[in-house]
Write a structure and sequence with these properties.
Two copies of one chain form a homodimer. Chain A is an alpha+beta fold and about 140 residues long. The first copy, chain A, is built from six helices and five strands. Chain A folds into two domains: about 90 residues, Arc Repressor Mutant, subunit A (Orthogonal Bundle), CATH 1.10.10.10; about 55 residues, Ferric-uptake regulator, C-terminal dimerisarion domain (Dna Ligase, domain 1, 2-Layer Sandwich). In chain A, the strands form two sheets. Chain A has a three-stranded mixed β-sheet with strand order 4-3-5. In chain A, a hairpin with a 5-residue loop joins β3 and β4. Chain A starts with a helix and ends with a helix. β5 of chain A pairs antiparallel with β5 of chain B, so a sheet runs across the interface. Bound molecules: manganese (II) ion (2 copies) and zinc ion (ZN) (2 copies). The site of one zinc ion has 8 residues of chain A, from α6. The structure holds a DNA duplex (30 and 30 nucleotides).
Chain lengths: ~140, ~140
DNA sequence: TTGAAATTGAGAATCAATCTCAAATATGGA
DNA sequence: TCCATATTTGAGATTGATTCTCAATTTCAA
């Protein structure tokens, strides 16, 4: 399914459907959570498949443009991605203490953002809401 | 005022109040909008003052920890900062077309986030909401 | 099957940010 | 004021994620 979408996207832009892009797409969707480009690259090599780092980065950018995946966050240790196709859109709470990530979704929040955009004559396309703080466990440990 | 706060922060951590830190703090607050470390560094040199790049980066991190400034966004071309002390908290809309940034604040949005955190037993400390899309002007130009 | 155009990959390049460590400095006490 | 010492500074090196280069390979419409 995601393969159909990606290939269609490529065709429309006069770009080509290659083995490497197929491999990268497939392995991207083998992740159920967040992942970074380097570990995706290693996962590809582990399975005996082939695609270079350069192609991994290039293809991740294409997959973002195409809307199948999203950048979750850009930390000092690189970028985290996740696929959005199949998973609904959601936002993240990041624990400063232990690094754990809570995913959440709120219809109210989405609606409110739409209203705010309208108020500014801004046409929202995507957004990232990242709430940093302390998860339940880390709050306890502090005491 | 911000100087008082910063010095108190340093003292509490057993860190020292140095000329370089004072210069960097002062020039940081000479910006009324967003800025990046390199241009802050250049602005310092232009005025004949001195502080190395290393100290600029180190001090910006301290100022973040201390809460006087915040990271606005981490782009491919580096990190943008702004001071929060004196300015109220706000979030950003980023135009994909022209790079312009709209600042906005919504009491409803803040309240809603608090509720969402409570629901997850998460203790929110800071957050970043970045809405990417097209500003008024870029919407027109597209047609 | 062909050929123009797109893509790939190994390694080089880029560049923000951090690190190194000897020299300089801040600070609390004598 | 002077001292002892822990902290900070800065020039340049280093790191590390990401992008770039470009010759060789591959795609795909005709
Ligand atoms: Mn997620
Ligand atoms: Mn701002
Ligand atoms: Zn935690
Ligand atoms: Zn614009």
């Amino acid at each position: 399914m995601e393969k159909k979408i990606f290939n269609k996207f490529l065709k429309e832009r006069g770009q080509r459907v290659t083995k490497e892009r197929a491999v990268i797409l497939q392995k991207t969707f083998s992740y159920h959570g967040h992942f970074d480009p380097e570990s995706l690259y290693l996962r590809i090599r582990e399975t005996g498949l082939k695609a270079s780092r350069a192609s991994v980065y290039r293809t991740l950018n294409l997959l973002c443009e195409c809307g199948l995946i999203e950048r979750v966050t850009k930390t000092e240790r690189g970028t985290l991605y996740e696929h959005t196709f199949g998973h609904g859109h959601h936002d993240h709470m990041l624990c400063i203490g232990c690094g754990s990530i809570i995913e959440f979704y709120s219809e109210d929040l989405e609606r409110l953002q739409d209203n705010l955009c309208r108020k500014q004559d801004f046409k929202g396309v995507t957004h990232t809401l990242e709430i940093r703080g302390y998860c339940k466990r880390c709050q306890k440990n502090k005491k």
